Amino acid sequence: MTPSQAHATSPDRRQDAGPAVRAFTRLLRAHASTTRLLSAELLEQHGLTINDFEALLVLSGADGRRLKRVELSRQLLLTPSGITRLLEGLEAAGLVERQACPSDLRVTYARLTDNGAERLQAASSAHIASVTALFEQHLEAGEIIGLADTLDKLPGVASSDGACGAG
User: Fold this and answer.
1) Is residue 99, in this structure, part of any structural domain at all?
2) What sign for the dihedral angle of Cα 137, 44, 166, 77?
3) Which of 34, 124, 133, 135 has the most CB atoms around its CB within 10 Å?
4) CATH number, position 119
5) Which residues span the domain enclosing 141?
6) pLDDT digits over 42-64, tens only?
7) Which pLDDT does position 17 carry in this prediction?
8) 35, pLDDT greater than 80
C-alpha cells in the first residue's frame, strides 16, 4: 500500500471520523478563534491577555487573594513552566506578587496586588461586554444557553463557571 492509499483509507479523515470528531474539531477552532479575538481586545484595551485576565480572576476569588503557584497552575491548566512565565509578566507589571509560606519554605504563593485587583475590575466590564457581543452576533439567546448547557457535560467544564466575571 502506498502512503497516499494509506492516507485515503485512514480512519482519521474528518468526513469519515463521525460526528464526535467533527464536534471536537469545531470546538478547537471556535476556541482558537474566539480566544485570539478576545485576547487581542483585552490586550489593546487593558494590556492583559486572556491568560493574564484568567489568572487575576482566579486569584481575586481565592482566600486572601492568593493561591499556591502549583494550585493556580492546576486551575489555569498550565504547565509549571507556563505558570512561571505567566506570573513573571504579571509580577513585573505589579499585578501579582510572590509570597513565601512562613511554615514551609518549599511553598510559594501568587498573591493579587491592589493594582492587579484594580486592573481586573477595569477590564472585567469591557471583557464581559465583548464576550456577550461576540456570542450574540452569531447565536440566538436559546442557542447560547444550549451551548453552555451542552459544554457543561464535558469533563472539567462546569466546575469553572464564572470565568469572565470579576470577583
Assistant:
1) yes
2) positive
3) 124
4) 1.10.10.10
5) 21-152
6) 999 999 999 999 999 999 999 99
7) 80
8) yes
